[in-house]
Amino acid sequence: MSRPQCPRCSRPTSHCLCPLIPALDSRTRVLILQHPSEVKHALNTARLAALGLINAELVVGEVFTDLAVLLEQPGHQACLLFPGELAQPLSEYAAAREGAPLLLVVPDGTWRKASKLLHLNPALAALPRVTLPQGASSRYRLRKAPMAGALSTIEAIVQALEIIEAPAGFADLLRPFEVLIEGQIAAMGEETFRRNHGSAS
To answer: Whole domain around residue 124: which residue ranges?
Structure first.
């Protein structure tokens, strides 16, 4: 028999994260396009990000037939947070817009699944691409990063917003994420965590 879940954060009611989820506002509009394979993942960081940001929307799918509508945000310049040869540093892209609000589009999934979203949605792949500074360190200790500097979706969004909207801070968005990580580590046991994921520092 499955445990009752919180309908908002999708966690078991005994481990509900809602009291930790903030309600942060931003000039930047955040659109998260989530691959369906991520929906039931125990560490659904995209959902936490969407719940904690007032000006954010989470859409699940592979082919987004209404993408043109989703991207139509009056006064906002849409850009895609995804690496690539033509990707600009986000700080430079935002500075060139001279403070105009951005629509930050963030694909959520493994690198393979996120790349598939771009392949299946040409209008998405055609957006200007932006990247975060290299050298970031992820706190997502339960999933092996595909490459150095890879971040979870919620970490990438926080870093992006702090670049675009400096000096505003968005670290509170990470509080439920960190509690979730610690809870998962506690559930598996310290010894198992160290054996499978390295040091528990």
So the answer is: 24-134+148-196
Q: Tell me which residue of 74, 71, 192 sits closest to 128, measured CA to CA.
A: 71
Work out the average pLDDT over 171-183: 90
Question: Which H/E stretch holds residue 102?
Answer: strand 102-108
CA dist 39 to 15, 64, 84, Å? Answer: 18, 16, 26
Q: Give the model's pLDDT for residue 191.
A: 56
Question: What length is written for the chain?
Answer: 201
Rounded CA gap, 53 and 160, in Å? 13
Inside any domain, residue 81: yes
Backbone angles phi, psi at 153, to 5 degrees: -60, -45
If one counts every other C-beta atom within 10 angstroms of the C-beta of residue 25, the result is 9
In this predicted structure, the answer to whether residue 147 has a pLDDT above a threshold of 80 is: no
Task: Tell me what the mean pLDDT of segment 167-186 comes to.
Answer: 88
Q: What CATH number is associated with residue 158?
A: 3.40.1280
**Residue 15 belongs to a domain:** no
DSSP 106-130: EEES-HHHHHHHHHH-HHHHTSPEE
pLDDT tens-digit series, residues 13-28:
988 999 999 999 999 9
What pTM did the predictor assign? 0.86
Measured distance CA(191)–CA(124) in Å, rounded: 43
